[in-house]
Design brief:
Length: about 290
């Protein structure tokens, strides 16, 4: 299925572990380029996040950001180091014996002594599981949006293909008329010059001009490329690069058609084809 690379997704969820908000943005890019912004407590799962994104997307520049607020249940616990406190009390007692004076110690100063209070980190595994699950929902939403945009691109490209086919059909119809017109123009010029000419040589020159101006091969190749574009639009998987190549080939044939034009009608057809191809190419640049 054809997908656009431009999309946006935002999902949020709240649980006993806290609250999280994912925001995902993607634009066209030749390859898959992922930029991740995470809060410090969750940086350890960045690789899992990248792997998850790669399972859903194959191309595009993707910016991913997560906002996380921990719940009270996820706050770290503070424990009193009784062994360290006992050592401090013993040291104070020794000092009192040494100086013969009772010391009055502020409890808060004792608590600030390094190692007296120990912070126990919470188990982050429930948070990891929750935010990764929420990320998948955000990616599913992004893929849905890419698919919708892809359908619109298919409709646009299909309409331009029909227009190109119409231009080719009209040109094929008038090719005999163009050749006849060339013959009449050449005869008219010779008559105006009032010179005698060899009929066989004249016919030979006409054949040469007809061959030089013959665009049937270019038209046939354009028809072939159109068939291949239509086929690619119905294929599964990433078709962006293939369609981009086909746009280049179509443009090449349109340029050749213009360079061989011996009639203004052929020139105008070539110009119109290039306009239609360019419109398709701009859309193809955004296909995954």
């Amino acid at each position: 299925m054809i997908r656009s690379m431009t999309a946006f997704s935002r999902t949020q969820e709240t649980g006993t572990w806290g609250s999280a908000v994912w925001e995902l943005r993607s634009v066209n890019h030749r390859y898959l380029e992922i930029s991740v912004r995470l809060p410090e407590p969750l940086k350890e799962i960045e690789q899992q996040i990248r792997e998850t994104i790669s399972q859903f997307l194959s191309r595009g520049k993707v910016d991913v950001s997560l906002k996380y607020v921990a719940s009270a249940a996820m706050s770290g616990k503070i424990n009193l180091n009784h062994s360290m406190l006992s050592q401090l009390r013993s040291a104070i007692s020794d000092m009192e014996s040494e100086i013969g004076k009772t010391l009055h110690c502020d409890a808060t100063r004792l608590l600030s002594w390094p190692g007296v209070l120990e912070e126990q980190s919470p188990d982050m595994s429930p948070v990891h599981q929750a935010v990764l699950s929420l990320l998948k929902k955000a990616l599913e939403s992004m893929v849905e949006m890419r698919n919708r945009e892809g359908k619109a691109i298919i409709e646009m490209i299909s309409s331009r293909l029909v227009a190109i086919e119409d231009e080719i059909k009209k040109l094929r119809t008038i090719l005999p008329e163009i050749l006849k017109s060339q013959r009449e123009q050449l005869l008219e010029k010779l008559n105006d010059l009032k010179v005698e000419y060899d009929q066989d040589r004249f016919e030979h020159e006409l054949v040469y001009l007809a061959q030089k101006a013959d665009v049937a091969e270019e038209l046939d190749r354009i028809d072939t490329h159109i068939v291949e574009v239509k086929r690619s639009l119905t294929q599964k998987g990433s078709m962006g690069r293939r369609l981009d190549f086909l746009m280049q080939e179509l443009n090449r044939e349109a340029n050749t058609l213009g360079s061989k034009a011996a009639d203004s009608r052929v020139t105008m057809t070539a110009v119109e084809l290039k306009v239609l191809i360019e419109q398709m190419r701009e859309q193809v640049q955004n296909i995954e």
